[in-house]
Amino acid sequence: MTAKPFSQACENNKDSILQVLKTAFTEPATVWEIGSGTGQHACHFARHLPHLEWQPTDRAEHLPGIALWRDEAGLDNLRPALALDVTDAIWPCNGIDALFSANTLHIMGHAEVEVLFQKLRIHLSPVATACFYGPFNYQGRYTSDSNARFDEWLKQRDPRSGIKDYEWIADLAAAAGLTVTDDVEMPANNRTLVFRTG
């Protein structure tokens, strides 16, 4: 029997992120999660936000692990995960009213992040909310020594990755029709950025 994938970071941050999502996603909607990873977040948020339909997505190699979590959760509002790489020419969706992504922007290279926001300009509905969780730099500076060490580790693993500047992300979002409406301080030197269109 295949063991479910597990992320300790997801366990550590899921409740603090949930508190932000409760205020960001107040209306019924389908939330598209970019980079669902293990599937732990999808299960937790779908369970505690029953007014939402949760749509996990990730690269194809992660879908079996997400399916194990989803099958165990048995939630009617948690959809089967779909294969999605942000650089895919065609995304498996039409209009997106709500979007969530955790710990993805610092894993992607700058070119991939640019493509992501270009895709959001195409796929987000006229009135939509997007939430991104993770570490960010401000005015080119790390917010903590631990983030500086983490960024060094990321770049050693993949030179294209690394913690992105908040100002750069905000500019990309603005070009996609998104405005920052909240920047929430989170545990472990992370943030949740809330963007809205319309």
From TrEMBL:
Stretch forming the signal peptide: none
Q: Which UniProt keywords apply?
A: Methyltransferase, Transferase
Look up keyword Methyltransferase and say if it applies: yes
Gene3D superfamilies given in the database record: Vaccinia Virus protein VP39
Enumerate the Pfam families for this protein: DUF938 (PF06080)
Concerning InterPro entries, the annotation shows: DUF938, SAM-dependent_MTases_sf
Q: Which GO terms describe its molecular function?
A: methyltransferase activity
One BP annotation, GO: methylation
Keyword Transferase applies: yes
Q: What is the protein name stated in its UniProt record?
A: Methylase
Taxonomic source organism:
Methylomonas koyamae
